[in-house]
UniProtKB/TrEMBL annotation:
CDD domains: NUDIX_NadM_like. Gene3D superfamilies: Nucleoside Triphosphate Pyrophosphohydrolase (3.90.79.10), Winged helix-like DNA-binding domain superfamily/Winged helix DNA-binding domain (1.10.10.10). It comes from Chitinophaga fulva. It comes from the Bacteria. This is DNA mismatch repair protein MutT. Residues 152-211 form the NrtR DNA-binding winged helix domain. InterPro entries: NUDIX_hydrolase-like_dom_sf, WH-like_DNA-bd_sf, WH_DNA-bd_sf, WHD_NrtR.
């Protein structure tokens, strides 16, 4: 039997990129490491794959540990490997992304790391491989947002068209024409108009919608 030499061990981790929207701002949940080579760095939430788990179960555990919520939309993004090897060990990450509406719930630490919501437009510097995964997630979400229900996962149970447009503009990084955007969203047939209005943003107010 031929033995292969030069093989290195492979550490498999799972990353869960958790996007949140609080009705005004798009945010990203990051964890500040308290030890190890990434000590004091803000990073994407992640953990090692346990022997009793599959990838989705690990992503669900990360999500529930940090937010306390189990039923949040989650989707597998893909597998990523770093360009460098360290100490004869290779590391591969299977990445997921989650979308949630942010209420005022408490966040919980992951292995002692401190979780915190960060404004998407003001993110701290991330490790290079984490930045690469985040960019891939953002590109995927932008592409899939042409199918409206995906970004709707970030909305509160009741929302306005201006709130929805604000969310789309934050994800895509550019403004949309107000009239065309409203027409396109209403044409999906997914929005159910409510009788009450949100009146804090303007005197006329904006009707609420539900899915």
């Amino acid at each position: 039997m031929k033995h292969h030499t030069g093989w290195s061990s492979l550490l498999v981790t799972v990353a869960n990129i958790i996007f949140g929207f609080d009705g005004q701002d798009l945010k990203l949940l990051l964890v500040k490491h308290t030890e190890g080579p990434l000590k004091n760095r803000w990073c994407l939430p992640g953990d090692c794959l346990q022997s009793s788990e599959n990838f989705d179960q690990t992503a669900a555990r990360i999500q529930q540990t940090l937010t306390g919520h189990e039923k949040i939309y989650r989707e597998q993004l893909g597998a990523f490997g770093p360009s460098k090897r360290t100490a004869g060990e290779r590391k591969a990450s299977v990445a997921f992304f989650s979308l949630m509406y942010i209420r005022r719930e408490k966040l919980f630490p992951l292995h002692g790391g401190r979780p915190e919501w960060h404004l998407f437009q003001e993110l701290p510097s991330l490790p290079a491989d984490h930045h690469h995964i985040l960019e891939a997630a953002l590109q995927h979400i932008r592409y899939q947002s042409s199918t409206p229900p995906l970004l709707f996962k970030l909305l509160p149970p009741k929302f306005t068209i201006p709130q929805l447009q604000l969310l789309y503009e934050m994800v895509h990084g550019h403004p949309f024409d107000k009239r065309n955007f409203s027409r396109k969203m209403l044409s999906t047939g997914l929005l159910i108009k409510q009788s009450d209005k949100e009146k804090l943003s303007s005197k006329r107010g904006a009707f609420y919608y539900k899915l």
